[in-house]
Specification:
By secondary structure, the protein is of the alpha/beta class. The chain has helices spanning 40-55, 58-61, 64-80, 82-93, 97-106, 108-117, 154-168, 182-194, 208-217, 230-243, 265-277, 297-308, 329-344, 380-383, 399-407, 422-431, and strands spanning 2-3, 6-8, 11-13, 20-24, 31-36, 133-141, 144-148, 171-175, 201-203, 223-227, 246-250, 256-259, 289-293, 348-351, 370-373, 390-396, 411-412, 414-418, 436-439, 454-455, 458-459, 472-480. It is built from 16 helices and 22 strands. The strands form 6 sheets. Strands 14-15-16-13-12-18-19 form a 7-stranded mixed beta sheet, with helices on both faces. A 6-stranded mixed beta sheet has the order 9-8-7-10-11-21, with helices on both faces. The chain has a 3-stranded mixed beta sheet with strand order 1-5-4, with helices on one face. The structure holds nicotinamide-adenine-dinucleotide.
Length: 492
């Protein structure tokens, strides 16, 4: 079995505790590699290395243009190794090879975009209310960044943090999810090959309590950039508040996908299906609440079922597979438990609802694509994030009704509206409480478009030009150009 090593200060090293844990393939249910079980000692070593790289040596001395050039080289290496890294992701998280290849071929763009931005970070000269001074601002790296990532799209979500942080001049210690650490460890090797100085990018793998906690609490960590569940995000944010650290939080969602009766229904059906069943529903932006206007409800559900029924489960490495397994055993149990909850709440199950036990599912952790109709928005199945292939269909009467239901949830990550009425599209996009609103599409994301949550879905934004500000702090510099200092003990 393959045994991985930590990546600290430009070197592959064994964990100080000399301990490893097994990682499993969600399709076979079998262990396929050993991941280092890091602890506080490894965290300290990695943070010290990141702090050294931040404050002295070649990274600290480099011009922003040189930083950008390194990032471009890294992007090229990711593109070169996209197939290998995608295969590692599939082995570890069970998502479809086609999706992971798509992500890996897209990730270099984050490094090209933010690499290009590195030497365009400018301060400004300040108009002042005082004579005899010249003042300007500098935007400096916020410091050592602790990046903590989830299991659903390990490298893509890591790139959303790493690329703007590097552009800003920060150094990084990343802790990937204990369920999907392998790809981040392989990714780290590309930093050395690209020519990044040691200590700029470090990976410590392990569990939340053993690696995440000491990383969050380390005095030399200045910023915590977290993607994961809102429960863990809250915990980290509480600690960070006490320790006065900067944070960015990308948390969960319960996004409404709203279909009006004037929509292109065929397109809306595809949007609804990809919104919930792509990635086996394991995306923060899953369109898990489908709001359908009363007048078309029954016909639309019929069309939806006709497409959803054709979903083919199976080996995620097989290009013919459309729905893969759930990534982790606890998540698998959680999704099945939510199906039971929805039934007991009185929702009507019109598709799926069982473990996937067809022969092509092998020993994998499969849940059938599942659809509930007759869902009321106050049911748990409509309010809580399932993070699996479970869709709740909710009826609405008119626009105001749709808006009220859509916003009546504690999350606010994304929302979609399907309509041909441009006025309605604009009104809805103004009033929906979500960080991203799509009109007549679903799931579109880009390195160029800010992404993040309203309400309990998070704090801060990733992607787009402004994301680099998450990793900067501003300094004001005052220069005396002619003001004369008087005796400070004599009041004027
Ligand atoms: P999780 O919160 O369980 O874990 C996320 C990471 O935090 C893991 O690396 C974990 O080891 C670490 N962690 C756990 N306890 C910790 C602690 N006490 N201190 C520090 N780190 C700790 O989330 P998950 O189950 O891996 O991911 C699924 C969740 O992520 C879903 O809620 C999903 O919506 C969310 N998510 C959000 C986005 C987004 O951009 N908004 C994207 C993807 C996933």
């Amino acid at each position: 079995m393959k045994r991985y090593r930590l990546h600290i200060d430009g070197q592959a090293v064994d964990p100080q505790g000399d301990a490893w844990f097994e990682t499993q393939n969600p399709f076979t249910g079998q262990a396929w590699a050993e991941i280092p079980r890091g602890d506080a000692r490894d965290v300290d070593r990695a943070v010290q290395a990141a702090h050294r790289a931040l404050t002295s040596g070649p990274w600290a001395e480099m011009t922003a243009t040189q930083r950008g050039a390194l990032m471009h080289r890294l992007g090229d290496l990711i593109a070169r190794d996209a197939a290998r890294l995608a295969a590692t992701e599939v082995r570890d998280n069970g998502k479809l090879l086609a999706e992971m290849q798509g992500q890996l071929h897209y990730i270099p763009q984050w490094f090209y975009y933010y690499g290009g931005l590195a030497d365009k970070i400018q301060g400004s000269t300040l108009p002042l209310d005082k004579k005899g001074y010249f003042a300007f601002t500098r935007h400096e790296p916020v410091g050592v960044v602790a990046a903590i990532t989830p299991w659903n799209s390990p490298l893509l979500l890591a790139a959303w943090k790493i690329a703007p942080a590097l552009a800003a001049g920060c150094t990084i210690v990343i802790k990937p999810s204990e369920f999907t650490s392998a790809s981040t460890l392989e990714f780290a090797e590309l930093f050395d090959e690209a020519g990044f100085p040691p200590g700029v990018f470090n990976v410590v793998t392990g569990f939340g309590a053993e690696v995440g906690t000491p990383l969050v609490e380390h005095p030399l960590v200045n910023k915590i950039s977290f993607t994961g569940s809102d429960a863990t995000g809250r915990l980290i944010n509480e600690k960070a508040a006490r320790l006065l650290k900067h944070t960015a939080m990308e948390l969960g969602g319960k996004s409404p996908n709203i279909v009006f009766d004037d929509a292109d229904l065929e397109q809306a059906v595809f949007g609804a299906v990809s919104g919930i069943f792509a990635a086996t529903g394991q995306t923060c932006i899953a369109g898990s609440r489908l709001l359908v206007q009363d007048s078309i409800h029954d016909a639309f559900v019929e069309k939806l079922l006709a497409v959803a029924r054709t979903a083919r489960m199976g080996d995620p490495m097989d290009p013919a597979t459309q729905v893969g397994p759930v990534t982790t055993p606890p998540q698998y149990k959680k999704v099945l438990a939510y199906i039971d909850i929805a039934r007991s709440e009185g929702a009507r199950m019109v598709l799926g609802g069982e473990k996937g036990n067809a022969p092509e599912c092998g020993q994998g952790w499969f849940v059938q694509p599942t659809i509930f109709t007759g869902v009321r928005n106050d049911m748990r199945i409509a309010q809580e994030e399932v993070f699996g292939p479970v869709l709740s269909v909710i009826r609405f009467k008119e626009e105001a009704d749709a808006l009220r239901i859509a916003n009546d949830v504690r999350f606010g990550l994304a929302a979609a509206v399907w309509t041909k009425d441009i006025g309605r599209a604009i009104r809805m996009s103004e009033r929906l409480q979500a960080g991203t609103v799509w009109v007549n599409t679903y799931r579109a994301v880009s390195f160029m478009a800010p992404f993040g949550g309203y309400k309990d879905s998070g704090l801060g934004r990733e992607n787009g030009i402004d994301a680099v500000r998450e990793y900067l702090q501003t300094k004001s510099v005052w220069i005396n150009s002619g003001a004369v200092a008087g005796n400070p003990f004599v009041l004027r």
